[in-house]
Amino acid sequence: MSEGRRRALITGITGQDGSFLAELLLARGYEVWGLIRKASLFNTQRIDHLYQDPHAKDVRLHLRYGDVTDGASLLRLVQEARPDEVYHLAAQSHVQASFQLPELTAEVTGLGTVRLLEALRQAGLAQQARFYQASTSELFGDAATSPQDEETPIRPCSPYGAAKAYAFHIVRTYREAYGMFAVNGILFNHESERRGETFVTRKITRAVGRIACGLQERLYLGNLDAERDWGFAGDYVEAMALMLQAPEPVDLVIATGQRRSVREFAALAFERVGLDWEEHVEIDPRYLRPAEVNTLVGDASRARELLGWRPRLEFEALVARMVDADLALARREAALRP
Ligand code: NAP
Ligand code: F7E
Question: Which residues sit opposite 231 in a β-bridge?
Answer without folding.
Answer: 190
